[in-house]
Amino acid sequence: MSTINYSEKIPNNVNLSEDRTLQRALEQWQPNYLSWWSDMGPDGSQNFDVYLRTAVSVDPQGWAQFGHVKMPDYRWGIFLNPAEQNRKIHFGDHKGEDAWQDVPGEHRANLRRIIVTQGDTEPASVEQQRHLGLTAPSQYDLRNLFQVNVEEGRHLWAMVYLLHKYFGRDGREEGEALLERRSGQQDNPRILEAFNEETPDWLSFFMFTYFTDRDGKFQLCALAESSFDPLARTTKFMLTEEAHHMFVGESGVSRVIQRTCAAMNELKTDDPAKLRAAGVIDLPTIQRYLNFHFSVTIDLFGADESSNAATFYSTGLKGRYEEGKRVDDHILKGQTYRVLNAVNGKLVEKEVPMLNALNEVLRDDYIKDSIAGVERWNKVIEKAGIPFRLKTPHKAFHRNIGALSGVKVSPEGQVVSEADWARSVDQWLPSATDRAFVASLMGRVVEPGKFANWIAPPAMGINRQPVDFEYVRFA
Ligand SMILES: [Fe+2]
Ligand SMILES: [Fe+2]
CB count, 10 Å around CB of 348? Predict the structure, then answer.
């Protein structure tokens, strides 16, 4: 007989203490998860007491409990949003039928693939970010990094729960494989390319949490529409956490910009060399980081024409962003969508069946959403009276997936030759010099209330604590 008090150790609303099969699967998996965390989780931080929020239930009082905890003792829980009575499938060929409480045999392979692909991104980002704690610009930022890390860990738990509960032995094997792949490792890499890139510095981290965690939001929103009800309910709860990750990114970049603008006004210069000498990140470098993270992230939505995307939609596995708010037939047969193509060195629009273009539809929704935050960054620059504006690059810029991967396109959307690309790429994407400069600024600031020179303090602290609160107690 097991003596583990499950609801204490693994907060959950999936009736874990009564579910012997699930207990057995998780009991096998959890030690491997903890050993993955100790190998690949935040470097050198196992003994820190960190002011973290933990979800202990899905109601407003329980989903965000704050307190100092050591990260290996974090209570990674399993939560589903409350069930909707008599939920119906609301798109695709099964529209109007009851939502599935179990996995239909014919959709098993595709659903497993979708869950594994989502699940794989969660530990990947923890691996990508594991050295950042060593160069945190403040305790406040260090705490935010760790919060993101433990929640990505919980998102892995959420996906592994689905695999264990609904996919039997295959699911358990996939659960193990999720702990075995490694970001950036050549022989066993993470599934998606952006999750094999390094996150080498804090500007990259803020750009990643702004742009790439937002990809997470859009994928989760599409899965929250799924006919497979446990997947829909799991991803809905994950979205509550994702919002904070994007906040970390948006406010982080905003504070970098604010500090740079203050230095520009103090020194009365926009000369990158002078600003770099003053220890802040010049706006053109910020623009190049933005170009990089935006372009790498929009590749994550996949090929612009995809028969898989059509299948996932028609069979009811994955909906569109805000499916319920759209006014069309939610079946989409016979409808078309315009995608961008490269023909003889020119960008041309092409009309394709809507169902095959659903990756592009989601990518376009994402682009709209990500532009909004860039405009909020521009407000900071405008307020400082500086005539510079950040801009998301053209959709065809620096693409590696789909029809646009075959052409070289400038951030403004001009097709350019290979030679022009090579000549200009250092103006468009972070160069080795840019990256070395940003890396040179990274130094550890740990005194409460103190911030590195290249970033402004936040307007307020976490959970209404003061900015100089002791967010991390070092052992
Ligand atoms: Fe996540
Ligand atoms: Fe996230």
Answer: 9
Q: What is the pLDDT of residues 237-293, one digit of tens each?
A: 999 999 999 999 999 999 999 999 999 999 999 999 999 999 999 999 999 999 999
DSSP 8-state class, residue 54: E
| The total number of residues written for the chain in this structure | 475
The predicted pLDDT at position 2 comes to: 47
Torsion of CA 247, 194, 29, 155, to 10 degrees: 20
Cβ distance 122 to 324 under 8 Å?
no
CB distance 199 to 130 below 8 Å: no
Tell me the CA–centroid distance for residue 231 and ligand 1, in Å. Answer: 14
pLDDT digits (tens, 9 = 90+) for 189-231: 999 988 999 899 999 999 999 999 999 999 999 999 999 999 9
Q: How far apart are the first and last CA of the chain?
A: 36
Outline where 341-473 has alpha helix (H): 358-383, 418-428, 432-441
3-state SS, residue 60: coil
Query: With 0-12 CB in 10 A as exposed, 13-18 as middle and 19+ as buried, what is 324?
Result: exposed
The pLDDT of residue 7:
72
In the structure, what pLDDT confidence band is assigned to residue 59 with cuts at 50, 70 and 90?
A: confident
Q: How far is the CA of 381 from the centre of ligand 1 (A)?
A: 30
Residue with the two structure tokens 């659960």: 175
198 Cβ partners below 8 Å, 6+ apart? Answer: 128, 184, 204
Distances (CA, A) of 412 to 29, 416, 464: 48, 11, 42
What is the sign, positive or negative, of the torsion defined by CA atoms of 194, 197, 202, 203?
A: negative
Q: Is 338 helix (H, G, I), strand (E, B) or coil?
A: strand
Q: How far is the CA of 242 from the centre of ligand 1 (A)?
A: 6
Q: What is the dihedral of CA 192, 186, 116, 178, to 10 degrees?
A: -140
**CA angle, corner 208, sides to 202 and 209, nearest 5?**
95
Contacts of 50 by beta carbon, 8 Å cutoff, 6+ apart: 68, 69, 70, 71, 143, 146, 147, 471, 472, 473
For residue 155, the CA-to-ligand 2 centroid distance in Å is: 8
Helix (H, G, I), strand (E, B) or coil at 189: coil
The alpha carbon of 423 and the centre of ligand 2 are apart by a number of angstroms equal to 36
Among the bound ligands, name the one nearest to the CA of residue 159: 1
DSSP 8-state code for residue 117: H
Q: pTM for the complete prediction?
A: 0.96
The alpha carbon of 226 and the centre of ligand 2 are apart by a number of angstroms equal to 20
Which numbered ligand comes closest to the C-alpha of 124?
1
The SS3 assignment for 70 reads strand
- Name every residue whose Cβ is closer than 8 Å to that of residue 238 and which is 6 or more positions away in sequence: 155, 158, 220
pLDDT score, position 4 = 62
